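thread: overnight batch results

M.L. [08:02]
morning all. the overnight job finished for the chain we discussed friday. pasting input first so we're all looking at the same thing
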Amino acid sequence: MKSTILRIGSFLSLLTIGIVFPARAQEGWQWQNPLPQGNDLLGVEAIDANTIIAVGRYGTSLRTTDAGTTWSRMDVTTNTDISLKSVLFLNSSTGWVVGSLGSIFYSSNGGKDWVSRNSPAGTRNLNALASGGGSVGFAVGDSGTIIRTTDGGLQWNSLASPATADLRSVFFPTSTIGYVAGDLGTLLKSTDAGAHWFNVPDTSATVRDFQSIYFRTRDTGWVSGSQGVILGTTTGGASWVRQFSGTSTTLLQITFNNTSVGFAVGGRVIVQTSNGGTTWLPAVLDTVNALRGISFSDVRNGWIVGDNGETKKTTDRGVTWTRLHENITFDLYSNIFIDVHRGWAVGAEGTIIHTIDGGNSWFRESTPVTKSLRSTFFVSATQGWAVGDSGTLLATADGITWSQTPVDSPAALSSVHFPDPLHGWAVGQRGTILRTTKPHRLEHCDFRPQFRYHFDSEDDRRRCALDRGR
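M.L. [08:03]
and the structure it wrote out:
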């Protein structure tokens, strides 16, 4: 049976990161959040305005033919140890995917079916793809690896490389002129269709790990990388000028959709230029997820992918970007359902989410804390509790509005349970046990050195004090 690893941390009933589950739903588990899935996406290819391919960790591969309304899983590989890092289509039919462990995959029908190809890279990671025109393509990877196909991706052969650093990006603006960028300031150029490569000096004297390279013409191009670096050239790499991006975030991919308008993404940031890179303006595009790949099908329609399955879309030349799914991507640690329709989940940064339709949709509830919540319990559709770090205890009387209940203990609380609306227990660090018969009032007493007992009445406190004095 084919299998995939679901990177949970944001999925509700599967709370262990890295568990292996069946690719299909035969064994009863399906993604509910994030949608369409939650593994990190590392690369994206917009074949046209409606057809987009995205690939990522744990062999993740997705395809949409309706501009992102629905997504289907592609069976590029069943090996969940492989991270798929880059995808490229020469046309609507022929495409390639490369990734870790030297993996190469080929499709001849628009991504519906994939076959593995022999890789001259051995087990060295392949990080990026580029078209060399016609049936020619290139891939680059770790330890200076450069490989080429001349038959549309059926066969690949190694090329001599002057680099030893890991190579991150390759681009051919013409069938004969090509460029490669990589770690430790590596910049390479070929003028004979990739047969031979030579080092291009970085005249800007900016030694960075370069992550992406893009050329608009044979001589005009840009490279981006660590610490927010962007370099530009109009001389085919003979000289480079640093362009200030306004960010120190590593920029993982750079692209232009015309001669003036360009974008680079990395971390939670997008930087944009409208004047060919003379000035760049940074903006925070996501508050949670790192952004890793960007692709335009035309000057208007573009896509961004990132961590936790994040997918964004623009239809107005990159002026605005829209999340395809309003996913919750904070780590989630606990959930409870009181019936098949109504449930809650809690997690990092005070996150509480609620569903009333069996998990088909979730909405986030407002909470008065930012501490991680570790456990939740409900005795009815309205009455519930949540506990978490630093002695955090929250209560709700309507299932929506939450208030904080003071607890005389700083210990992190990891679990809460109520057998009925009036009797409850919470447990946590350093042997902490809390008990209540009045759920909005909890106090503690160090009854024994190795445990913490918590009482909710003055009589209990006095008894505790008497016992401590014995």
